[in-house]
C-alpha cells in the first residue's frame, strides 16, 4: 500500500431537548442556534486520566495477527450487529473470514444475553426451528452471534450454514448469501431444474446433504417463492420427506424493514409462504432495546417502525430539525440515502481542510478475474481508495482494542512510518509543539523555513532535530488518529478483510488490505447498516424505499445526539400484511 466561539445564549434545555442540564445547552455557532452536547467521560476513564501521564500512541498491531508476506493484520473480532438499509443484488454471493463490523458492549449497551435471548438460544440448542425477530437495536445480531458460537461448539463446520439474503448482510454475519450457499443462481428456475444443476456440482450438493442447521439472516428480503423452492429442494436433494429435508432452520430479521427485491410490488413475503408454518416450530419476539437507553427515542422508533405516528411523536420529530454540535469539536455523521450525496458531502469537507492529501490504495487479491474480485469485495466497508489529511474526521470500522471498537470516532493527527512512530511519540511527549512542526514538514515536503528552524531550536536539541528529520524521510507513512477514548493517539496500519468460500475448506477467494477507517462526515444508509452511531444527522429528503427512514434513524443512540432533516409523515409507510403478522405474533406469544 502506498500513501501517496463564543456563547451568546445559555440555558437548561432538558425539558425541550432532553438530557441533563450538565450535558446539554444552547449555543450560537456561525449565527445559528444549535444544541451543544458535552461528551460524557466514563468514571473509570476520568480516574485513569487523573492518575497517569498520557501515552500518546498505541498501535493496531498490538491487537491483531500478522499475516505472511503482507505485513498487515487479519481482523479478529467477537461480536456483530446487522440491519439492512439498501439492497444489493441477491446473487452477489459472498462469504467472509471474520465478522467485519461489530458493535462492542461499550457501544451497543449489551454485555451478556438477556433472559429473552437465552430463551431463544435454548430453543435452538434443543433442536427447534425458530424465527426470532424484534425492532432495530434489540440485539438480534448479538444473539445470532451467540447462537453461531454455541452451534459450532457442538457441530462441525459444514453442518452449520450461515447465510443472509444480501452480500452486505452476509458479510456482517460471517457467512454467504443464501443464493451462493444453495447454488441457486438467481433462484428463478423451477425446483427440478435447480436440483439438476445442484446435483452436477458436488461441492454444493455436499453442503445440502451435510447441513444440519441452516441460518438465514435478514429474512425480510427473502421472497416466499424462493423459500418454498428451497424447502422442496432440501427434501429432494437430501431424500428426506420431513420439512426442509430434516434441516433445522433458524431465521431472523425484521419484516418492518426492507422488503424483498421483487419484480413487482405484490411479491409475497416469506411468512406468507405455505411452507412457513410447516418449517417454523416457534416464533419468538425480542422486546428489550439495547442500542438506545433514551425512552423518548425508543418510543419514537417503535411508532415509526409500525407506521403509527402520534401527534407527540410528530412533534418530537419536528424538534429534531435543529443542529447539534459538540464541545470536543468532533462532528456527527450524516446519513444519506444515495452514495453520490455521501461522496459530495465528504469531498466538500475535505476541501475545507488545508493541507496535503495522503492516499492509501488498498491491496486487493483473489482467485478470480478482476471483475469478479471487485464484485466480491464491493460490500467490504474498507474502501479501495482512502484519502486522508491532517484534521480529517474518521470512523473506525474494525475492533482493534477494548476501547477502540467499530464505530469509534476520531481525527487524524499526523502521518508517520510504522517503525518511526515510537521516536516521534517520545519527541512529542517531551514537547507537544513538535507535532505541529512535524506536520508543517509534511505540508512543505520536508522544506524547513526560517520560522520552523526557530521553533525546532526552541523545543529540540541538535540531536533531536536530526532525529525529527530522519523520522520525516522514512516512507510509507501511516495515519495517526486521536480517538479520544484515552489520552492515546493510535497508529493505524493495514489489516486484511478476507472473503472465504464455504466450509469445510473455507478457502480465501478474495482479500483486501486497507487502513481500518473511513471518512466519518457522511455515510450512506446502506453502509451504515450494522453501525451504532453516537452522534448522527439523518437527511431523509431523498429516501426511496420503504423502511429506509426507519433503518437510518434507528442507528442513533439518543435523542440529544440526533438531528433529522427532511422528515415527513408520508415517508413512514408500513405494509399492512406486516402489521397484521406482528399483531398476531404479539397475541400468540
From TrEMBL:
Subcellular location: Nucleus; Mitochondrion
Boundaries of every AAA+ ATPase domain copy: 126-271
A molecular-function term among this protein's GO annotations: ATP hydrolysis activity
Keyword Nucleus: yes
GO biological process annotation, one example: DNA recombination
Region (Disordered) residue spans: 56-111
EC number(s) on file: 5.6.2.3
SUPFAM superfamilies: P-loop containing nucleoside triphosphate hydrolases
Subunit structure and binding partners: Monomer.
Name this protein carries in UniProt: ATP-dependent DNA helicase PIF1
Upper lineage: Eukaryota, Fungi, Dikarya, Ascomycota, Saccharomycotina
Gene name linked to the record: PIF1
